[in-house]
Amino acid sequence: MSQQVAEQKAAVKLNEEYCSRCSICRSLCPFEAITKDAETKKVLLEIEKCQVCGICYSACPARAIDIIYYDCGFLINYLEKEKRKYNSDTLVIMCRGSAPDFSGIERLFGVSKFIPLSVPCVGRIPEELLLQAIAMGIKEIYILACDEDYCRFDRGSLITGRRVLALNQLLEQLGYGKEAITLKRHSLKVKPDTDLCISCGNCAFYCPYDAAKLDSPGGAKFDLDSCRGCGLCVAMCPAIALDLENWERERISTLLSKLLSEMKPPKILVFRCQWAVFPPLDCLPFSPNIGTIDLPCAARVDTFHLLEAFQKGVDGVLVAVCPEDDCKLEKGSWWAKHLVATLGERLKQIGFQDRLHFCTVAVRYPEEFDRELRQFSQRIEAIGSKKEGK
Amino acid sequence: MIVTAQKPLDEILDSISPYSNILIAGCDGCTQPPRGLREAKTLSQLLELGGRLRDRNFAFKVTTVVKQCDSFLTASALKPQVDDVDAVLSLACGAGVQTVAELFPDLAVLPAQNTHFIGVEDREGGILEERCVGCGDCLLVLTGGICPVTRCAKGLLNGACGGARNGKCEMNPAKDCAWELIFQRLAKQDKLDLIREFRPPRNYQLKAWRLTP
User: Which of A238, A239, A307 sits opposite B46 (nearest CB)?
Assistant: First the structure.
């Protein structure tokens, strides 16, 4: 019984009745979460290993895999709605992991008016969706994937590349011209300001990818090819000399101020790893007193922004990141926990205890985040919205 | 490097309470963990929040100095910034705080750190450990590069004391016996005769308080 309940709550489900046991999903899964029973030949999903990349879902020829987030039907409905809203026949599908802002998209593809569709990993987009989009009257499709070695789900970008290649050949035969679908790859990397570097070596020590080096005078040097854009060095730099493309300090501060001006007390701000919670596409706030800021990884959780939120009148700050074992990058979740705990100790010293909460939530169990948010909201309401600075 | 620890925020809030316009000055020099611009900014945020709960409105400016213990560098970095402040809260070690205090006799100069020792950092282990007391008479050449003044609980110059158990100090079993480490290292280097050399008691006059380069 309890197993059944757990199954219902999981974000990905393998529907045995439809499964043809072809094993394509098993061969594509980057996390070895899908196995085949040697005796019964049944395909099995180990949900604990699943990271909800959606690659299996998009590849299953028998449609035997159900996924809670961004399934094809949902995306098609969304596209129809957005097509009217944007009044455009150009579609840009981008991975959240590497997509710049809209002006960056314009520069990359040379398009100014388009329907944006941002998903966690383009590897979850089935061919069916692209064909349906064309059938819907969309003239141009652009796909922005991560650089292959930057893909948070290991193979999502690679698989998309192959899919686009095959689809383009097919579409050409059908008379849709060459390269009906344009694929580009992109990554978001650290932006060092060498003038501000104090040569302390923090970036070189903390970088999980050996992208930062401090072995010659003149400050730290970055090998951008190795940088995977987790943002840990940015959070750890004592000189505020580093920033992360598309997640710049200023950009987060601006978003924070904007959210707070729209929120009602008691105000709760959620900083979350974009891989820990997949929000719905039309992303309406849960309630008028909750605002969310998505970060590229738990590693980019910066004490600066947490304190900034309190300074600007937030009543509670919730940090929701992936469990340590699920971190798409290296130890981002572990460091975030450490940073938030250290800050929590200092907040206690000035009487701000209980207003900062750290939790880990796995994207495979969508209800985990809702539960944490509900509990934290209750806690903040209980403390009462203290009016500061009166 | 000089190892410091944060003072409790309550204590800092008490010390800044007579003042309203405060410059928080970080130090990019050898203080560990680094107390540069980020720490200055973080501290200003925390103190502002703490002030609000105490019905105080402080105005903070933040800056950082390459090395606060260097009066030339500190003067050039801070002079243009202190006109409109009535206190400087320094994130440097005790030496840095005093440099600032001497430079600005009319300003309140307050420490935000407790200064502990000259030490080394083991980043992996997250540990900072004392390695030098600045005794003025370095004997590392005789002890295989291991300092008994800081690392032997008794500060013995002619060890070992005989109290160690399994290579651990009798005062603190978590610590290695410095003299056993010295013995092993000298033995490895075939220099054990050095351990027989008699070292006279420390001459505290050598702990110089002023030097010219």
Answer: A307
Whole-prediction pTM: 0.90
SS3 A308: helix
Is-contact A352 A314, C-beta < 8 A? no
CB contact under 8 A, A240 and B41: yes
**Which residues fall within 8 angstroms of residue B198, CB to CB, at 6 or more apart?**
B158
Residues 34-73 of A with CB under 8 A from B: none
Asked if B121 reaches chain A (Cβ–Cβ under 8 Å), the answer is no
Taking the alpha carbons of B144, B150, B154, B158 in that order, is the dihedral positive or negative? positive
Name chain B contacts of A389, Cβ cutoff 8 Å: 52, 57
Enter the tokens of residue B119. Answer: 């030490």
Chain pair A-B, CB pairs under 8 angstroms? 71
C-beta atoms of A311 and B49 within 8 A = yes
| Residue B155 touches partner A, C-beta closer than 8 Å | no
CA pair distance A181, A142, nearest whole angstrom? 6
A308 vs B contacts (CB less than 8 Å):
45
Q: Does B127 touch chain A (CB under 8 A)?
A: no
Kindly give the confidence (pLDDT) of every residue in chain A, 390 residues in length, as a single tens digit, with 9 standing for 90 and above.
344 444 458 999 999 999 999 999 999 999 999 999 989 989 999 999 999 999 999 999 999 999 988 889 889 999 999 999 999 999 999 999 999 988 899 999 999 899 999 999 999 999 999 999 999 999 999 999 999 999 999 999 999 999 999 999 999 999 988 888 999 999 999 999 999 999 999 999 999 999 999 998 889 999 999 999 999 999 999 999 999 999 999 999 999 999 999 999 899 999 999 999 998 776 566 788 999 999 999 999 999 999 999 999 999 999 999 999 999 998 999 999 999 999 999 999 998 889 999 999 999 998 999 999 999 999 999 987 554 433
Amino acid identity of residue A303, one-letter, is T
Count other C-beta atoms under 10 Å from residue B160's C-beta. 19
Are A349 and B10 inside 8 Å of each other by CB?
yes
Contacts of A202 in chain B (CB under 8 A): 34
Chain A residues with beta carbon closer than 8 angstroms to that of B38: 237-240, 304
Strand partners, B99: none
Give the ipTM of the model, two decimals please: 0.87
Q: Please, which residues have CB within 8 angstroms of residue A49's CB and are 6 or more apart in sequence? A: A31, A32, A33
- A166 CB contacts (<8 Å, ≥6 apart)? A127
Q: Which residues of B19-45 are buried (b: 16+ CB within 10 A; e: fewer)?
A: beebbbbbbbbbbbbbbbbbbbbbbbb
Residue B79 is encoded by which pair of tokens? 């002079």
